[in-house]
Amino acid sequence: MNELLLIVLAYLIGSVPTSVWVSRYFFDIDIREYGSGNAGATNTYRVLGPKWGTIVMVTDMLKGMLAVKLALLLPDYADSDIRFVNLQIGLGLAAVIGHIFPIWADFRGGKGVATLFGLVVGISPWTALSCSGVFLLVLFLTRFVSLSSILASVAFPVFILIVFNVENNVYRVFAIAVALMVVLTHQKNIGRLLKGNESKVPILKHRDRRRERRRQNVAS
Questions:
Q1: Which segments in the chain show pLDDT lower than 70?
Q2: How far apart are CA 125 and CA 164, in angstroms?
Q3: What integer pLDDT is reported at residue 63 of this predicted model?
């Protein structure tokens, strides 16, 4: 019974529609009616700017981190690391489901990547740091947030199964499921990437200008 109550609480935490509330209260719009139509940090970054995109991303991550920490309210699970981590995974997944289908926003949420990342940070910070490295490297090279998220999620089970060799079977299955889920929820992005229509985040503009000047100089 206590576990069920915590799962419901984790879902309600995940249901907090950060981007929707920010766009409504500060800009009098619904972020889901602009850009990609997604209620997530990336679309907020594109539509409302880096400041609000960062606020939404950090808040959505905190939802996942807070959800897994709810496991501390059940001290009986502290006797077994595996049972404790399994409980954390269950609570974190409830928060992710809440983010994707938020009760506070007509069940139309985001893709859950930031909340998933917060979940991983709360359970295994070193794995989260490793995945962050993959994300940032791909973002630096391509400026595609979607591609960065996909490759970082695919790297997640690689770190769990091979690099850190985690023995918890539930966590191993969870890592594989996360990679599959992120790929599935990014099908439209993958289609746009293949067609060359995916939008890039406006970072490293100076680098792009230098490259463009070099191309113009070579052409001339």
A1: 1, 202-220
A2: 12
A3: 97
Neighbouring residues of 24: CB distance < 8 A, sequence distance ≥ 6: 30
214, two tokens: 């070099």
The Cα 30–Cα 24 span in angstroms is 6
Residues 6+ apart with CB under 8 A from 102: 14, 15, 16, 17, 20, 39, 108, 109
Per-residue pLDDT at 1: 58
On whether the CB atoms of residues 52 and 20 are closer than 8 A, the answer is no
Output b/e per residue, 68-106; b: 16+ Cβ within 10 A.
bebbeeeeebeeeeebbbbbbbbbbbbbbbbbbbbeebe
Q: Give the SS3 label for residue 123.
A: helix
Tell me what pLDDT residue 185 has: 83
> In the prediction, which pLDDT does 197 show?
87
pTM: 0.84
**Phi and psi torsions of 114, nearest 5°:** -65, -40
Angle, alpha carbons 133-20-52 (nearest 5°)? 50
Domain boundaries, the chain: 1-107, 124-207
**How far, in whole angstroms, is CA 125 from its chain's centroid?**
15
Query: What is the predicted pLDDT for the residue at 213?
Result: 64
SS3 (DSSP) at 1: coil
Q: Rounded to whole angstroms, how far apart are CA atoms 3 and 203?
A: 43
